[in-house]
Amino acid sequence: MLRFKNPALIALLIQIASTLMVLAFISSQSFLAFSLFEWGVLQGILASIFSFAARMPYWWAAIHLLFLPLSIATLALDISPLWFLIIFMGLWLIYGKTYKTQVPLYLSSKHVPSALASSLPTNRDFSFIDLGSGCGGLLKNLAGIHKNGRFYGIESAPAPFLISKLRNMWSVSDYKIVWGDFWQHDFSKYDVVYAYLSPVPMESLWQKACREMRPGSLLISNTFVIPGITPYKSIPLNDFSNSTLYLWKIGNGD
Predict the structure, then answer these.
(1) DSSP secondary structure, 23-60, as one string
(2) Do the beta carbons of residue 222 and residue 202 sit within 8 Å?
(3) Looking at residue 231, what is its pLDDT?
(4) How far is CA 232 from CA 24, 60, 75, 166, 197, in A?
(5) φ, ψ for residue 247 (rounded to 5)?
(6) Segment 204-242, tens digit of pLDDT
């Protein structure tokens, strides 16, 4: 079971609570004659304060501040609801269940395959899985370099999964991508598990890896560290975001 809270649910509760408080204030007084938009701004400010109090990430405060005022302004523009459905479906196709997993779509840079070259086995066969494999670019590159590896990816966002499957059909590299939730996937059959997630699930990922991965196998995280667990090796990528690969050996005394 994942140990992190669902921010979408917290955000919904904050929106409901702040809206009810503003409605209660409106019904209890008559000296303030704000417009609907101005009341929306007040609700946004209140929701932002609640967001800080709940220790949500700072960018949630901006969402809470703007959500209701922008919704009111949009209604005034008389935009067809069909556009909102199209935008929602587009975001869902690209990001999937990010609202639940708190893992956005990150694409590994082109520097990762070469950075991993010294850490992947060269004198024996090995299995490698990319958790949230996106459009499959990393697997394609690694499979083209390491002929002794069996490469797998698992992805749950519809559009990246479809793109990766199409790329796989036309690729000469040998790798396999499946649809699914990696939290429900067994890590025990892989020698190397690679993840480019977010800070939120890293502790839970470590616990799952320790339960399921074999001693001596390798857990690799792009950019995000595991709280309280020191990696045995770090590899700067020197890419546009100055990312770092962090490597942990399972059963290494951590």
Answers:
(1) HHHHHH-SS----HHHHHHHHHHHHHHHHHHTT--HHH
(2) no
(3) 93
(4) 56, 34, 54, 36, 20
(5) -120, 135
(6) 999 999 999 999 999 999 989 999 999 999 998 877 667
Tokens of 26: 């409106």
* Residue 203, both tokens: 């502790």
pLDDT tens sequence across 146-168: 899 999 999 888 888 888 888 87
32-71 per-residue burial string, b: 16 or more CB within 10 A, e: under 16: eeeeeeebbbbbbbbbbebbeeeebeeebbebbbbbbbee
Contact at 8 Å (CB) between 201 and 98? no
81-107 b/e (C-beta count within 10 Å ≥ 16 → b): eeeeeeeeeeeeeebbebeebbbebbe
Q: Quickly tell me which residue has 């090995």 as its tokens.
A: 126
Is the separation of the CB atoms in 141 and 168 below 8 Å? no
CA-to-CA separations, 203 to 138, 207, 218, 233, in angstroms, rounded:
24, 6, 16, 18
Task: Using DSSP bridges, classify how beta strands 233-236 and 175-179 pair: parallel, antiparallel or unpaired.
Answer: unpaired
What is the distance between the alpha carbons of residues 75 and 98, in angstroms, rounded to a whole number?
26
| Digit-coded pLDDT (tens) for 42-67 | 999 999 999 888 877 677 788 888 88
Asked if 134 contacts 195 with a C-beta cutoff of 8 angstroms, the reply is: no
- The DSSP letter of residue 80 is -
